[in-house]
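Entries read sequence, tokenised fold; example below:

***
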Amino acid sequence: MKQHDTIAAIATAPGVGGVGIIRISGDKALEICTKLCHKVPKPRQALFAQFKHNKQLIDEGIVLFFPNPHSFTGEDVVELQGHGGPVVMNMLLQAVLACGARQAQAGEFSQRAFLNDKIDLVQAEAIADLISSSTEQAAIAAQRSLQGDFSNKVSEILKKLIGLRVWIEAAIDFPEEEIDFLADKAQQQKMQDLHQSLKDLLAKAQQGELLNKGVMIGIVGQPNVGKSSLLNLFTRNETAIVSDVAGTTRDVVKENINIHGIPVLIIDTAGIHITEDKVEQEGIKRAKQILKQADIILQVIDSSQDVEKQKQNLADLPFSKRKVTVYNKVDLITNKQNPEDNEVVLSAKTKQGFEELENKILHMINSQGDIESSFSARARHITQLQKTVENIAIAEHNFLNNQAGELVAEDLRQAQEHLSQITGDFTSDDLLGEIFSSFCIGK
């Protein structure tokens, strides 16, 4: 897709820096560069030049020229690298605009790269994810998506889906071949394999979404069981007020941390109990909302008090599917609790059991696969993958139960439509091309 106007923007972060970059993209990029520098740079060779406008020296620095189509946007791209002060950068940008460019909109360089088939939608989104990464693991995952790991997996599945759809629609269109395609064991196996591949990709994408947006962990329990002390262990700081007085925490306390490189929003909540205090009631209401929103819940129990009664008092709460019961204050008891798989024995005072709790949380987060090989993903990707899995599940059911081939083909069409929205690589025209290239239609 050809863009007719030339855009420009400051490509470096706001503020003072050693180097600032003005990026120009479009047909007039080289012309504008020549007007300002009075030199014509060679492709991909650094050129030192003075930047002048109306005979006024603005700055001096390095010029880089990337001719189309071998540039980030697929257009002619020029970078003017000068001194990184906000005043001089704005002066230089204004000179570029006066020479025929217009101010780029937010994300427009990446948008042009997508429109010119330099990157797909997933890679475009990965650029933003990489910039906003809050941990090393999130940055590595975003880089994998930017390099095409996620896109390649989607494309592989799309290819299999299209191949199966082509075969089914051809069998429908040519009934004289007398092929009972719904009874074809090889094609049934392909359908089952396709369904499993999509479920695996969905699980991997959900893992990537956690790395991208972070994991929400809620700490809940009755008053004075050590919730705030546990929060302080995670933050390695006196984030929450700790007191022997029950009901000290009356509102949610939020803190951004990371656990082994995974971004985590950890939330301490008000103690859940029956109270006439209006402020405490509001805090308890908010604590129950956290229970519905959190990815993981830490249910804190005071081991030195009646454990079963505490569990009974919390039994009716809408707990997350992923819950860890934390038996706190074990330093105060002699009969140690024998924890099960979803339980941890802890002393927030001595830090006994805290490392085990972190490892258990990490295992829960990493339950969908190896986090070291994860790619970043977004809610949009998850939604489209879930819809794809739903359509494939229906298609598989109809396929294995010898339903009408048209129903199977329609569900495959919808599945392809949802999956193609992730990267934007395939359209209905691509299916048409696949059919003509795979079958001798004119026989």
Q: What stands out?
A: DSSP finds 14 helices and twelve strands in the chain.
